Amino acid sequence: MVDRVSARDTDWDGVRLHVVTGKGGTGKTTVAAALALALAAGGRRVLLVEVEGRQGIAQLFDVPPLPYEERRVAVAPDGGDVHALAVDTEEALIEYLEMFYNLKRAGKAMTKLGIVDFVTTIAPGLRDVILTGKTSESVRRRNKDGSFIYDAVVMDAPPTGRITKFLNVNEEVSGLAKVGPVRNHADTVMKVVRSPETAVHFVTLLEEMPVQETMDGIHDLREAGLPVGGVFVNMEHKPVLPPDALAAAAAGELDTDEIVRGVKAAGLENGAERIAAVLVAEAAEHARRTTLQAREKERLESLDIPRYTLPLLPHGMDLAGLYTLAEAIRTQGAA
């Protein structure tokens, strides 16, 4: 087998499938995209897979909506390519029927009749087998010389509340098929998902509900015997006040008169008292959020898995921001 580039020392040496999940609103897709960029840095080839049909990857990389084919969407730092694939359930089902039943024409006819939607509705486990199967196939695919086509695959997976059921496809298809192509395909998928080559990472904010869902999700994965990866703490708000000022703000003991004098010294004579009152309120809210973050960070520290902190980007998320997050991921040893 021919290595494309030499190995790097990271927390996830040997992992080739990185599944990224998280509660809605935590930035799951953003972190998955940044992780793909980080993994591709230095000349690697990485595939970023989207399975929820939202075209979030295309928006992040500022490219047209992705068709059902693998396309390069970014060049990683120091060389390397990120390719992306938005899995279309209907197209993937047609591929599935052709691969195992030689029924491509029938699959297209089923699509026209709306039977595909019917089938995946009455048997949602089959839909998950198709989506996870497409991803695991990308992990296993090789070049003619025996090397892997992709050095790593990153899946932007469903949210935390559904991730265990989504990945545990053997359990999901147990009522659909005991033997035959469906069962064999599910078994093949599970060999990849349960292997040391897979890690399921969680994205969270330092807020009560996302942290609780992360902890519950990790517990559920372990109960199902699925591989737990790391926790990415996204959009951490760094304190902008020193500890003594934070404590005073939290207690409502800031010296308002001093703040008024500071506002006036800055040349804002008119309405200085009103501006000072707004600043005091903002400081109190900042102190509350900082305290909340510290409490939730302490809860996460009880987990015996790697944690990575990604900053809140002051100017919002854009393509440059993705590269910033990718660098933070690499610096902390996650890729």
TrEMBL record:
GO terms for molecular function: ATP binding; ATP hydrolysis activity. It comes from the Bacteria. InterPro entries: ArsA/GET3_ATPase-like, ATPase_ArsA/GET3, P-loop_NTPase. Transmembrane segments: none annotated. Residues 17-191 form the ArsA/GET3 Anion-transporting ATPase-like domain. PANTHER family: ARSENICAL PUMP-DRIVING ATPASE ARSENITE-TRANSLOCATING ATPASE (PTHR10803), ATPASE RV3679-RELATED (PTHR10803:SF31). This is ATPase. It comes from Actinomadura logoneensis.
